[in-house]
Amino acid sequence: MIPWCKPLDVIVEMTHVTKRLHDHFMSRLSLNQQRTKFGVLSPVIEHPNFPQDYMDEDAEALNQSLSSPTGSTDSDRRRRTLATPSDDDDVPVKVEYTENTSMLKPTFKYRKAEAARRRRLAIDRRNERRQIVPRSTTDEGVTCSMDRNKTKNRISAASYRENRDKRVSFILNELTQLQNEFPHLQSKPWTPVKKPKSALREGESKDEYRKRTNRESAADSRFHQQQKLQHLTRELARLRQLAQHHRSHEMGGAESTPVVPEGARLKKIYLHFEEGDEANHLTLKLTIPSKWSGATVDRLKEFFLETYNERRPENKVDPNAYHLERTENRVIRGDETIHDTIKNRDDIYVKIGPSTFKHKKDLADEERERAAPKDLVQCKNFGCRDKFNPADNHASACKHHTKPPTFHDTKKGWQCCTEKLVYDWEQFELIEPCAVGFHSTTGIAPPKEERSGFGAPVLVVPAPAPTVKSIDDYNQKNPSTVTAVPKPKPVVVRTDGKAKCVNFGCQKEYVVADNDERACPHHVGAPVFRDAGKHWSCCPKIVKYDFDEFLKIPPCVVTAHTDQRV
């Protein structure tokens, strides 16, 4: 039984120390030396089998083990083979605790440094185990057998290239299958745009030039592979959509899957059926998903009327006998898309009458064309674009405007209806005429306004015309007088050998001696400024709204400079 010891200056006489107590002291030896480092109570152990030189060697071995990646030193191996006392030995052991005042007590700064050191050791051991060489290493004395080319970035780049090639192969196989199924569907070929090789820079050696051009060509190759993958992905999506369209028609579908236009979004509308008795009226609030935005208006009408027939079975209707209209009786054509014609929160009404079409003629249009006579004359009244038969012309046949149209800046309207000015051409065509009368092949001259009172025109009697004197009569009366003839204006000739070009779009000074047939790119026609648009009369299809963009329009002809306009 070992008695309890006081903390200071107490010596315990131990007899018959067992092997187990010896092992316990050996396991706690490392911890005691660390405590000694930070100034805790330092144990002083006196034992025949624990000489002082062994204590010093063990402390040195501990420092080596902390700095070693593997934590195994010669001292650790030697510690296992150290002679230990037997159970029969009666060896006194003296343990003395003294307060070490020369060491500072542990602080947060020391603990933080110790944690950082241990963290660095753990990172080094992990790098050695995984055979990873850090990019920031500057130690030239590393003699470990590691493959410096096996870095994570190189492995990930190779994995990316492998996945990209697999994706390209998969897309090409599916494109081949679609083209075999539908031979008329062909994908657009992808042609890369190769950049020219850069020239040798000033002060650059041939070795540096070779390395730089190799890097540029490698970067261009990676960019082209990425562009090829994006092109094949777009082509695959396009051919999938066309193939689905053909499959739906082959299976007897009434309409293919609509193409979702760009900018499509969810819409909420109100559909009203108000034909016939009030008991048969129906109003539905529909939420149109974005994938329906590319569908036609007739498809929306059929869907609504199918729902109506389910809810009103006693008053079933035929969808082909109705069409859709917006507010103010504005007809919506059946082949127009929902995205272009219907807005969010719109009120749509179902009206009697078959749908009309924008891109194809319906039965009613064909019947009207067959019934119309062939000897028709074009009416030239303002706002009337109808053709009429002179035999059927009457006083209420033509709805037109009495004055010509007016266009100022971006505003459009009619001079007889100045309160109705619009900015859109379609809205301009929808302005209602203000007069009714006969059709005319010559047009109506605008009426002249006669003012009376203040500001009325005053009748002015013109003065008699003066007698024009003849030069021949003057010469006959004065035969001895010399007739003065005006001198022609001298042609201004510049002495510096230069002239100013007068061609449209050029207006530059040039050297006359250097002028040739390829010197002056310019426009043949004069500039035209109409509304807010600007273009050249020789290039009417290229219209710009900004003056700087107008000046950048490329010329259409190339000739020699000239200083005289023809």
UniProtKB/TrEMBL annotation:
<feature type="region of interest" description="Disordered">
    <location>
        <begin position="63"/>
        <end position="92"/>
    </location>
</feature>
<dbReference type="InterPro" id="IPR007051">
    <property type="entry name" value="CHORD_dom"/>
</dbReference>
<keyword id="KW-0479">Metal-binding</keyword>
<keyword id="KW-0677">Repeat</keyword>
<feature type="domain" description="CHORD">
    <location>
        <begin position="501"/>
        <end position="561"/>
    </location>
</feature>
<feature type="compositionally biased region" description="Basic and acidic residues">
    <location>
        <begin position="199"/>
        <end position="223"/>
    </location>
</feature>
<feature type="region of interest" description="Disordered">
    <location>
        <begin position="186"/>
        <end position="229"/>
    </location>
</feature>
<feature type="domain" description="CHORD">
    <location>
        <begin position="379"/>
        <end position="439"/>
    </location>
</feature>
<dbReference type="GO" id="GO:0046872">
    <property type="term" value="F:metal ion binding"/>
</dbReference>
<protein>
    <recommendedName>
        <fullName>CHORD domain-containing protein</fullName>
    </recommendedName>
</protein>
<dbReference type="InterPro" id="IPR039790">
    <property type="entry name" value="CHRD1"/>
</dbReference>
<keyword id="KW-0862">Zinc</keyword>
<dbReference type="Pfam" id="PF04968">
    <property type="entry name" value="CHORD"/>
</dbReference>
